[in-house]
Design goal:
The complex is a heterodimer.
Chain A: E1 7-11, H1 12-26, E2 30-34, H2 50-54, E3 59-61, H3 66-78, E4 82-89, H4 90-93, H5 97-104, H6 107-110, E5 120-125, H7 140-143, E6 150-152, H8 157-162, H9 164-169, E7 174-179, E8 186-190, E9 202-205, E10 210-214, H10 218-231, E11 236-240, E12 243-245, H11 249-259, E13 262-269, H12 274-286, E14 295-299, H13 308-314, H14 318-330
Parallel strand pairs in A: 2-3, 2-4, 4-5, 5-7, 6-7, 10-11, 10-13, 13-14
Antiparallel strand pairs in A: 1-8, 6-12, 9-11
Chain B: H1 8-11, H2 14-39, H3 54-60, E1 69-72, H4 77-83, H5 87-95, E2 118-121, H6 128-141, E3 148-153, H7 160-171, E4 176-182, E5 185-186, E6 189-190, H8 191-194, H9 200-206, E7 210-215, H10 219-234, E8 240-245, H11 263-270, H12 274-284, H13 290-313
Parallel strand pairs in B: 1-2, 1-3, 3-4, 4-8, 7-8
Antiparallel strand pairs in B: 5-6
Helix pairs in contact in B: 2-3, 2-12, 2-13, 3-10, 5-13, 6-7
Bound molecules: thiamine diphosphate (TPP).
């Protein structure tokens, strides 16, 4: 075991920045481009200091032209570079949707396999800071609907640091969603991060009574709920999906077959969502292993309101997770019939 | 950009001249109070202040008719105040109270008020421009005689929305006044680092839109240009593009370390503070004495205090109502 000297405490923001720095050092073809990534220091301060270190050729401030610079990133990737395009938030990625969905996601297929698009597009996502309806979207699940792009949702420092490298090595477009409430998260990490994959889900906590399937910032709400449930004699297994497309269904199906119950916690809206997809796959492939219907806890289907009490009411909360699981374990109505 | 200012007496009678000072003072004090309340965590989320830019909206909005439409950005408290949205309902909105002009659903970035025809309060940069052109299309098709005015920063001119809206507005000769508040920085990105053509009215000209650039720190220049622009648009000659060169004295929002500009540059612009310089001009011309100025400040302070009191006394919307206003309640 490593001794304490090999450990350090870092923020999610710093881990992401370290990942960027290493990528820029590792490969001359890598460059970072986006609004205010340079002089401003990045809207979440992830890229702070990189301009001084790597210069304006490789740390490119762009105008407010999301469609343009995302498209240019796609073109530069086709042309042999390894761009990391930063979109400040998922909300503004909607201006670049055409480039992502109609262009990046289709080129390989439309060209009969001739042109691949090794672009990486990073953006923040998520609600919880009282930023109201135009600055609080969680649309990573929606992007996961699209064949041709890969969707990553790093919830830990290890992942936000480590997913970038395999994403850059991947021949296809990869979108990385960093939940904005995680940037200040502090975790103890090893002196040297180890490599991670971008293909598997991760079991964060082993349990026998119910499987909690989640990703992004909701991971911590699920871990909180699991800690509360332990005190009440219920052991929840917590799975961090990590990769939203292509989904690692083996991990969650195996878990559900063991625990026989599943709750999906997703900050996205419920209708037509990633949680619906996961639920469907469990029904299709593990129906006879279930002791209870699969349940979902998602955000209320409203644009995000500004007022704090309304925003919190719209989001999944640990107390609601606990309540739902107790009901599921008890057998439907919360009353123990045995 | 024009160098000389028109004479005050050519533009205003005495009461109007003083009223403009009262308006600019209200804008400034209202926002200073907002910053204070943000630090006290009464106001949350993002808060973008207009301090330094007051002469722009004050030179334009009073010349619109009450039923003309205004569309603005997330930096819109002052535009809303000038369009007739009450300070109290804006403050309540920023508190997240249901007495707020958007019921607490919108916050600082999303002020709306149908009665004053204040159409927001939009936080996707560039998003308001097509909307304003659409309001103008409706006015044109219904022969209402109304016009619409949309405010945006120079940063927004790099977005496709600007170009598409300009072209359409010109093609269809829509009654819309585009006001670019060129404060030189889009967050941390200076104009010359985001625009290949920094003479912004050239862009309007390329769409065959009449345009003009004025000193946005000078209320008199803005006023004179606004009157001309508004009469152009109202007379059916199509859209107009007015660039007002200005500066924001404060950070982009409350989370900005301002690494991208020198303190000295900010100080230099503060020498041209539109509120101070206009106030001094009025005093020099004898439009108001010290006692009158004191009274004006006291009246404004009272209005701001009342707004805070109203917001404090306001109530939280019931959580059971969370799902309202997703679809219309018919
Ligand atoms: C489409 C979009 N991209 C990025 C942002 C983030 N953002 C908010 S304001 C801003 C700068 C806008 O500058 P400008 O248009 O000049 O207006 P100012 O803030 O100076 O008033 C940026 C980059 C956004 N809100 N919307």
């Amino acid at each position: 075991m490593a001794d304490d000297n090999d450990k350090r405490t870092l923020s999610y923001r710093e881990a992401a920045g370290e990942g960027l720095r290493e990528a820029l050092n590792r490969d001359e073809r890598v460059f970072l481009m986006g609004e205010d990534v340079g002089r401003y220091g990045g809207c979440f301060a992830v890229s702070k200091g990189l301009l001084a270190e790597f210069g304006p050729e490789r740390i490119r401030d762009t105008p407010l032209s999301e469609s343009g610079f995302v498209g240019i990133g796609i073109g530069a990737a086709v042309g042999g570079m390894r761009p990391i395009v930063e979109i400040m938030t998922v909300n503004f990625s909607l201006l670049a949707l055409d480039q992502i969905v109609n262009h990046a996601a289709t080129l390989l297929h439309m060209s009969g396999g001739q042109f691949n698009v090794p672009v990486v597009i990073r953006m923040s996502t998520g609600a919880g800071n009282q930023l109201a309806a135009q600055h609080s979207h969680r649309l990573e699940g929606w992007y996961a609907h699209i064949p041709g792009i890969k969707i990553l949702a790093p919830a830990t420092l290890e992942d936000v640091h480590g997913m970038l490298q395999p994403a850059l090595e991947d021949p296809d477009p990869v979108l990385i969603f960093e939940h904005s409430v995680l940037y200040n998260l502090q975790q103890e990490v090893p002196a040297e991060f180890s490599a991670v994959d971008i293909s598997t889900a991760r079991i964060h906590r082993v349990g026998s009574d119910v499987t909690l399937i989640t990703y992004g910032a909701s991971l911590y709400k699920c871990l909180d709920a699991a800690a509360t449930l332990t005190e009440q004699g219920i052991e929840a297994e917590v799975i961090d999906l990590r990769v939203l497309r292509p989904l690692d269904e083996t991990t969650f199906l195996n878990s559900v077959r063991k625990t026989r119950r599943a709750l999906i916690v997703d900050e996205g809206w419920r209708s037509g969502s990633l949680s619906a997809e996961i639920s469907a796959r469990i029904m299709e492939q593990a129906f006879y292993d279930l002791d209870a219907p699969v349940e979902r806890l998602c955000s209320a289907e409203v644009p995000m309101p500004y007022a704090q009490h309304m925003e919190q009411a719209a989001l999944p909360q640990p107390e609601a997770i606990v309540a739902m699981i107790k009901r599921m374990v008890a057998g439907g109505d919360g009353v123990d019939h045995e | 950009m024009e160098k000389t200012s028109p004479k005050l007496t050519e533009l205003f009678d005495r009461d109007t001249a003083v009223e403009r000072l009262r308006q600019m003072t209200l804008l400034r004090r209202f926002e200073e109070k907002s910053a204070e309340l943000y630090s006290a965590t009464k106001i949350r989320g993002f808060l973008h202040l207009y301090v330094g830019q007051e002469a722009v909206a004050t030179g334009i909005i009073p010349y619109l008719n009450p039923d003309d439409g205004v569309v603005a950005t997330y930096r819109e408290h002052c535009h809303a105040l000038l369009k007739g949205v009450s300070a109290a309902s804006i403050m309540a909105e920023m508190y997240g109270k249901q007495e707020g002009c958007s019921r607490g659903r919108g916050g600082s970035m999303h002020l709306f008020d149908a009665a004053s025809r204040f159409y927001g309060g939009w936080a996707i940069v560039g998003g308001g421009m097509p909307l304003a052109a659409g309001l103008a299309l409706a006015d044109k098709m219904q022969h209402t005689g109304r016009i619409n005015c949309v405010f945006f920063g120079e940063g927004a001119m790099a977005e496709g929305e600007f170009h598409e809206a300009m072209n359409l507005a010109s093609l269809w000769q829509l009654p819309v006044l585009f006001v670019c508040e060129n404060n030189l920085y889009a967050m941390g990105t200076r104009l010359d680092l985001s625009e290949a053509q920094t003479d912004l009215s050239q862009k309007a000209a390329s769409y065959n839109v009449a345009s003009r650039a004025v000193d946005g720190m000078d209320l008199l220049q803005v006023t004179e240009a606004a009157r001309q622009a508004i009469s152009h648009v109202r007379s059916g000659q199509g859209p107009y593009f007015l660039e007002c060169r200005t500066y924001r004295f404060r950070a982009h929002s409350m989370f900005d370390a301002e690494l991208y500009r020198e303190k000295a540059e900010v100080e230099q612009w503060k020498q041209r503070d539109p509120l101070l310089s206009y106030g001094q001009l009025l005093q020099k011309l004898g439009c108001l004495d010290d006692a009158a100025l004191e009274q004006l400040e006291a009246d404004v302070a009272h209005e701001v205090d009342e707004a805070v009191r109203y917001a404090e006394a306001g109530s939280w919307e019931a959580v059971e109502d969370l799902s309202r206003f997703v679809y219309s309640e018919t």
